[in-house]
Amino acid sequence: MLPTQMQETSATNRLQKKSTPMISLKNIEKVYRTDTVETQALNNLNLNIGKGEFLSIMGPSGCGKSTLLNIMGLLDVPTSGEVRIDDNTTTNFPDKQLAAFRNRKIGFIFQSYHLINDLKVLDNVELPLLYRKSTGKERSILAAQALEKVGLSNRMKHFPTQLSGGQKQRVAIARAIVGQPEIILADEPTGNLDSNMGNEIMDILLQLNRNDGTTIVMVTHDEQMARKTHRLVRLFDGSQVL
Amino acid sequence: MLSHLFKLIWNKKKQNFLLLMEMFVSFLVMFAVFTLLVYYYKNFKVPHGFQYENVWAVNYNDAVKPDRLDSVALYMQTVRQTLLGVDGVQDITFTSANIPFSFTQNNNFVSYNKNKVLANVYEAEDNYASLFNLSVISGRWFDKTDIAGQTNTIVINNRLKESLFGNDEAIGKTILAGDEKLRVIGVSNDMKIDGDYQPTENGFFRKLDTAGLKYNSTILVKIRPGIDASFEPKLFKVLNNVIRNANIEIEHFTKKRERKNTLSLVPMILLSVVGGFLIINVALGLFGVLWYNINKRRCEIGLRRAVGASGSAISWQLIGEALVLSTLAIILGSFFAVQFPLLNVFDLPAGVYLTAIALAIAFIYGLVMICALYPGKQAAAIYPAVALHEE
Ligand SMILES: Nc1ncnc2c1ncn2[C@@H]1O[C@H](COP(=O)(O)OP(=O)(O)O)[C@@H](O)[C@H]1O
Ligand SMILES: [Mg+2]
To answer: Does the pLDDT at position A13 exceed 50?
Structure first.
């Protein structure tokens, strides 16, 4: 049972008016320079994402979606322009502070899961907590709770290689939410999954957004999925087209 | 974080096992190298206990000596007087062939009450101690009242005194060498007779008697200060004249000492070469594995950065993994190493082994740090956005 897109969009508009945006991008430009070529990955991009908003990004391959997500996630810096996260200008943050900021504020989900195969599921989920003050007991309790949320309580002691793709992505979601970040950035989270599994993942993300108010930005190739989110942004050659 | 590192290492035990074994073997080799080094150093610090710089050793073989013992004594007296008459000779003494820095040994078991030890036996005359500036710690050296074969008086060195008597008085006590009773009249300083790097040994001096002279083949000649090597041919000529039909050989104690030292250094050098090669091998292996690891684990590193690891947290993690692994190797190695003092293998003092263990531990940690530092730094520089999009 999902509300129509129209209703969602108007709800978002209300949200955006009420408060300062969670993520604010101003005049973002990103140029990759290698010895021979110069790639303009993002071109004068402006985007505000409200608190609690679920935004999807679509666009052809190579149009700069991942680059945009990396910049939002403070994994990459724009060539020019300003990034504000929850009213913090992060431009001059030193490495340590950036890392701590990512740790507290942002959870990442990737198309290829990026689980550490040498660690059990529970240890994978605990990972973000290792980089903040926490005891081993706290970590395993929180990780177990996160796994319960994604319905994988019975796979805690498995290694990632023993899981299906959908299960792996659920572990990755558990890892993304274990530190209770306000933002989740998901780069084609269902890209490697069949539609059944993809829908499962999508349902989890929708629930997180609805129940916990987590701001979610998701890159997707699936119109169907994008339609379930509050707002859709289309990119083409590094610029927003819609 | 430590338990996290343990999990990582444990879950990759197959890959880590070889590295662990390499570190373990290096630890043991370094333990051996340091044991020898510490032992040599400890011995090196002990003073020689006698002055040998102006002393030359004369060896003569196949000399035709008279048959009767009293004639031998007379003959040797002539030799002595002749040599003492040479300008440049300060003193001479006849002694057994097992002189300091020589390759000759003569030893016997001696016992006092329940203590029984092996000791070197030296035959010496009344002026032996003064010729070598060997100090007598307590009691006295030999004099005219000691008559070989009758009084059976001996001077023991300090080490033998401690082996047999501990802190008790030794002077006046009688010890047994076989069934022979020997009375201690003095305790001398220890002489480091096997060169700079070898320990002092138990030993005692007996008075050289006339029968001994018959088979004597060693004369110690103390040269006056300021006399140089050009004196040697002159002395040789005199010796050749006075000791008929003999093969005469003159050797300076300084040379003899060098030769002895070289011999001690051979195992040290061999071990160092073998150890050096092994360490270079291990260092390269360690460096290679760590280097390979960060390239293989770029995704993992990118991911860790994304979830909140700073660059320095990444390099410390990699260094930490290497340190945890080396700690395991060290624990395993130390278990074997402590068996040496516990079982008293090779009869070295326990302190030597323990110091060597400490040095080997420091060495392995140092090596691991050096090998891990650069790969760790490189890992910290990995750009997460790039690493996460490689597959
Ligand atoms: N690290 C990089 N170095 C050079 N060029 C890059 C790098 N990352 C991405 N690009 C280029 O930037 C453009 C946008 O890439 P990306 O953001 O990954 O696109 P998308 O995720 O939409 O497929 C592409 O042309 C890509 O080749
Ligand atoms: Mg992409």
So the answer is: no
